[in-house]
Specification:
The complex is a heterodimer of chains A (about 300) and B (about 350). Chain A is mostly helical and about 300 residues long. Chain A has 13 helices and no strands. The relative contact order of chain A is 0.13. The longest helix of chain B is centred in the middle third of the chain and has 18 residues. The chains are: A mainly alpha (about 300), B alpha+beta (about 350).
């Protein structure tokens, strides 16, 4: 066979043009949108690091001339709401004490729910599931007052545990759906094999299913942490000032009418409140996307 | 008479309005390798799941080793099961997979180790014990899945299409190994497949299923040579059996202008007459020099030739029906040529046209 000769002209991989008109428009728009979206955050950070005299100059976008962390300290430990002047820290710890039990309770119950609905079909399980899902579409406002009465009757109204119960109930539909779909995507034969191997309801759940479901647990944790942490409505309705969660306290600090508006303290307080969901997102963003995708494969 | 190991009696299973199994009776003998064969949706896997206890029957009974296990949990039935997707627990090592069932049954630790070691040795997976299933090849995974049934020291092995996920070469290898394993262990094995080669090579007996009932139960030889109805005849054999519409009259079948004298054919009903299907397997048609010894000879026109190496398949036309002939791989025929063929009634099958039962 004769030697093959390559001719002049296109050869190998097709070259891509970086600075094509399409790319310029595309990245230009992306950049613009990103700036638009990040600008408020920038203003907040910059303002929280300025002293009040500098803020009064009115240059909202200028970086601080003299960086001070005093507003952050004040927001955390000294800001006043009503007669209490111990800052946001109290609200933070309240929120933590509300978050942890709500998280553990809602996720443990919902994961078992989802597992039972996906793998142990019982008579009426579909009906039960549908009723539960309808719960996800009923506006919270409709249930506000009935739950006040309910909590009053069982003696939990105004307490931290009352709010924990409310968060657990309202997390149930969406979390159950999430877990059910995830467990339904795990091959049925695995479940059958475990039954042949003599594992029961809890044995299969704890030793076969749980070790395989880290992604979906991460999704559930993120959903619940951000949801519960950012909740304002339930916090303000079902608790008393002593146990107000951080968001409610933040509102009270920012909206307090007496004295001078301390914009730097308000900004710092707001940033502090948003810190927990932010950290959760950054720490687990990758797992979050994977879990959402995994749960979505089979419905 | 051999002892019965698994006995299924008048088993019914229906999901809502759909009947999957209907009044099914089946006895599997001790140490027998029984294959449930059928196309998808025939109920073969459902039957296996019922025997395993993974599905509850609507009616009927199941006995294993003489014990009524109709209501027993899968783990109490003395069965081990191997699945198509292997179904290994991904987070456990091979060793963990093998010992999981034993731990659930609270077998002493020393005994677990002994049994795992023995199973690993039988299946030659000793070097893999510490690995996770994700780090194994398909063939290795299926061995572990078999091992999981093996360690439990059960009376009955259930296989649900265990080789379907493997490539052709590996499938052939594991098929031989399964046969060797059965010779070695002498356990009762019930094996579900849709692959007739697997069924013919592995089985002591084959049960051909269709629409939730067993069409024929017999040795591979009986199933192949004496199919009891047209469905079985059509299902077994590749390429499929040729069917010619004919009329049986006084021991002669008339197909178009041809007349096939059926002398030498073992009739079930010697007085049968009327409309029939004459079934002839493509590989039972004589060509070339051997046609002269056949009871009936004719000439067909070659339509399409399919060389496969070992054989050459010829699609021809006989009395208006498509007609396949399997020839030697070295045979040279071209489309349009005339081919002389010979047919022996002893290797043919005759079915009633209406009941489709063997005559």
């Amino acid at each position: 066979m004769s030697e093959r000769v390559l001719e002049d002209g296109p050869r190998g991989a097709k070259p891509t043009k970086r600075l094509s008109r399409k790319n310029i428009i595309l990245y230009g728009i992306l950049l613009l949108v990103a700036i638009y979206y990040l600008l408020p955050l920038y203003v907040m950070i910059v303002t929280s690091l300025k002293g009040m005299p500098e803020i009064r100059l009115g240059n909202v976008f200028s970086p601080p001339v003299e960086i001070t962390f005093q507003p952050w300290v004040k927001a955390w430990a000294e800001a006043c709401t009503g007669i209490n002047c111990d800052g946001l820290s109290r609200g933070f710890w309240n929120s933590v004490r509300i978050l942890i039990p709500s998280l553990v309770l809602s996720i443990s119950i919902a994961s078992v729910n989802g597992y039972a609905l996906a793998n142990w079909r019982f008579k009426g399980s579909e009906v039960f599931f549908n009723i539960l899902i309808i719960g996800a579409f009923i506006p919270y406002q409709v249930m506000l007052y009935p739950i006040v009465i309910l909590l009053r009757e069982i003696g939990l109204y105004g307490s931290l545990w009352g709010l924990v119960l409310v968060h657990t109930i309202f997390g149930m539909p969406i979390l159950t759906l999430l877990f059910r779909n995830y467990f339904a995507s795990i091959p049925d034969e695995l479940f059958k094999a475990a039954r042949v191997d003599g594992a029961g309801f809890w044995g299969i759940f704890l030793r076969i299913m749980l070790p395989m479901s880290l992604p979906i647990f991460v999704v559930a944790i993120i959903l619940q942490v951000t949801g519960i942490w950012n909740d304002f409505l339930f916090g303000v309705v079902y608790t008393k000032p002593d146990v107000y969660p951080m968001t409610v306290q933040l509102n009270n600090i920012v909206n307090s009418v007496q004295g001078v508006k301390e914009y730097n303290v308000n900004m710092a307080a707001t940033l502090l409140t948003g810190l927990v969901p932010l950290i959760i997102y950054f720490a687990s963003g990758k797992l979050f996307v994977r879990g959402i995708a995994a749960g979505a494969v089979k419905g | 008479m051999q002892e019965v190991s698994v006995s299924v009696r008048k088993l019914d299973l229906s999901f809502a309005a759909v009947t999957v199994l209907h009044q099914l009776d089946l006895d599997v003998y001790d140490g027998e390798f029984l294959v449930l064969l059928g196309s998808s949706g025939c109920g073969k896997s459902t039957l296996l799941n019922c025997i395993a206890g993974l599905l509850d029957a609507t009616d009927g009974q199941i006995f294993i080793k003489g014990k009524n296990v109709t209501w027993a949990e899968p783990s109490e039935r003395g069965i081990g099961m191997v699945f198509q997707s292997y179904a290994l627990y991904p987070q456990m090592s091979v060793e963990g997979n093998l010992s999981f069932g034993l731990k659930n049954a609270r077998v002493p630790k020393a005994e677990i180790e002994k049994r795992v070691a023995r199973a690993a040795q039988v299946l030659q997976i000793e070097p893999l014990l510490k690995r996770k299933p994700g780090a194994l090849s398909g063939g290795q995974r299926q061995r572990v899945a078999i091992g999981r049934a093996l360690v439990r020291d059960v009376d009955v092995f259930l296989f649900d299409e265990p080789l379907s996920n493997l490539d052709a070469k590996l499938r052939a290898d594991l098929r031989v190994e399964l046969k060797r394993l059965h010779n070695q262990l002498q356990n009762t094995m019930i094996y579900v497949t849709h692959d007739q080669i697997e069924a013919m090579t592995l089985a002591d007996r084959i049960a051909i299923m269709k629409g939730g009932s067993i069409q024929q139960l017999g040795s591979p030889d009986e199933i192949y040579n004496r199919p009891m109805n047209k469905y079985v005849a059509d299902f077994i054999g590749s390429p499929a059996m040729n069917f010619l519409e004919g009329k049986l009259d006084n021991g002669v079948i008339h197909v178009g202008e041809h007349a096939f004298p059926m002398a030498g054919y073992d009739f079930v009903d010697a007085n049968a007459t009327g409309d029939v299907w004459l079934g002839i397997r493509p590989e039972h048609i004589a060509t070339g020099n051997s046609t002269s010894s056949a009871a009936f000879q004719t000439t067909v026109e070659v339509d399409i030739v399919e060389p496969t190496g070992a054989d050459t398949l010829v699609l021809a036309n006989l009395a208006g029906s498509p007609f396949r002939v399997r020839m030697d791989g070295q045979a040279r025929v071209r489309p349009g040529e005339n081919l002389v063929i010979g047919i022996n009634p002893a290797s043919a099958s005759v079915f009633d046209r209406h009941s489709e039962q063997r005559l």
